[in-house]
Amino acid sequence: MSDQANPGAGACERCGKPVEVGVVLVSSAVYWSPTPTFFLQPGPAFPNATMGRNDYYPFPMPMPSALCRDCGWVFPTPRSACEHSREPGFIFPLASLRWWGGTEPFEPSVWFTFNGKGKSGKECEVLVSRGLVVSVVDTRVEASRCKLCNGAAFRTEALVGAKAKEA
Prior knowledge:
8% of the residues lie in helices and 34% in strands.
């Protein structure tokens, strides 16, 4: 697991700085909405990382992504090349979104849901922390979605908070 940016990974869509390659570990339904609130349940933010209509998953779904540590945005890798045309919005994760950096495949431990660790004992980095969800609307995270490929990028809470403390 690497804490350094992978120089061959490219540049951030937002700030142009180098990004780190890895996977976002999705262990619950994550919804997308262009508005901060909604009346009817919106569609999935990450259609490639779902388990049917389940709200919570027995094991995390790895979603290949790029993480920019400078601006705190995560960009899932699209299935095919796309010249993104993004619109602002929000994602609503029901459980924490975690990061596993580098090219090593992630193997969750039996207790992953509770401790966020892999079989090797290494803990995954928390990008968006969630506990008991009382209201789905309260789980919102700033995001953007491509109008062409429907790929949703999101802003991490952990890195944004850390940058604010440094300033």
